[in-house]
Amino acid sequence: MRFQYVNTGDSPALWLGGTDSRYAPFSVTKNGYIKATSGQIGSFRITEFTDSVSKLKFYDLYAEHDSFGVIEASQLNLGAQGITVGVGNVSLGAYGRISMGHAGAGNKETGFTYNNILSVNVVCHNGDETGATYISAEGSVEKVKALTVYAAQGTHNYAVYSDAGMIRGALCPRVKVISSDYSLKENDNVIICTNSGAIDIQFPSNPAVGQSYIIIQVDGDLYFKGGASFRGRLNDANRNSKTKGQINFFFFDGTHWSNSYAN
Q1: Is-contact 72 62, C-beta < 8 A?
Q2: What is the Rg, in whole angstroms, of the alpha carbon atoms belonging to the chain?
Q3: DSSP per residue over 158-224, as a string?
Q4: pLDDT per residue as tens digits for the range 163-176
Q5: Is the pTM of this model over 0.70?
């Protein structure tokens, strides 16, 4: 143990584990600033690990429980995954973890791959009705947006992507009003056509499976061009809408634009 009298508050006055206070694993300044790379304070335990890829040393904060030992009951970690915040009890099988930063999948031993900016992982007990993620916007104000998501326009970019589960609630799709020739885009959904004369609507050449369009003919005729083959009430020999008020439904199934209409 070493001790020295200092006049400045940011210089170590007490340190252990080295002759130079700047590199000692434990030190305390005159102003009470403590540096500790390991140990335990109350129920919280500090541990460390070195990432094998970046060679950076990181420190985790764990809590200790009489029945379960050291657990990640509440965690704030700066590591190769960026910032990780954990809540819950891993040992009991109900926990959540959110990672924000510059990395994605990986672990402490093998390093990390760089593919996800934000990762959310939540495990709930069977039968729990609690959502994995809960976002609420409340109050008496109008036009509140509880969640806004955006994916830069490109090929098959998804602002929200789900391989399983259902989306529940009111649907308010994007609406595009056109009056002249138009090429459908990935982020289009409902197209309202107000043209008086005939126009062409070009379908995308490389749509995503599940891509859907609702095309409404208000007045003039519509001719559907390009893209994959049609299958349904409209086929390749009859790719048009010639009835005022007709609503055309299109769904891409991976090979065809399956469709129907109502008028």
Answers
A1: yes
A2: 29
A3: -SS--SSS---S-----EEEESS-EE--TT--EEEE--SS-EEEEPPSSPPTT-EEEEEESSS-EEE
A4: 777 788 888 889 99
A5: no
